[in-house]
């Protein structure tokens, strides 16, 4: 009896340990899977970002073509083609009319930001020398890599990668049109990864996600336009040079939630820091 009781006690302990061991193994496997997926996404970040941009474009094109189809009665494919032609024509018009101004002001902006960084690094270096709190921080060493020539070389690298940018834009456009032309097929393909009993719910979830993303994109576009217009007017009032390029950058940065406004303000502050007259007017 004592041996039987001891065996039962040992069996009970083993059964209690198995769930803990199973949970630990599942947690470890989950961490490994997430790490591998994150590594794959990082290695393939450029194709992933291009595909994501293409999906966003497809959502906008699909929503616009559906709206035109509902309002005018024209075939959806014709509405999609009309939207694509209008979008390409609008972008080409903007580039033709504002392209020279953007290129010219961007070159000036690089030099002005370089001057602002130089002034900022000098002020921080003086602060480092004079304040005990900053003596342990090698501020000058940190800012050495951000000198004007570093920015100029970065701008040259960007300018030399124009073909890559154009190729990326073409891929995004092609992918967006391809998905927007027949979204239902792609939704069905994506739903195949779910169990058969959940595929209907998966398709409904994907549709709802697309609707939410479309409304978010429209909201972000309105916010970007407002940020760009208000920034441009404010910079003109303050007499800040390169107002158009700075406002355009602020508008584009506004696409990023939360961090966008901060990123968009950095070049403005650096340009103001490089021009004492602007700094005084902003005080």
UniProtKB/TrEMBL annotation:
The keyword Transmembrane applies. It is found in: Membrane. Keywords: Membrane, Transmembrane, Transmembrane helix. One of its GO terms (cellular component) is membrane. Pfam families: AI-2E_transport. InterPro entries: AI-2E-like. GO terms for biological process: transmembrane transport. The chain crosses the membrane at residues 20-43, 49-68, 80-103, 158-181, 216-238, 244-272. It is a multi-pass membrane protein. It comes from the Bacteria. Belongs to the autoinducer-2 exporter (AI-2E) (TC 2.A.86) family. This is Pheromone autoinducer 2 transporter.
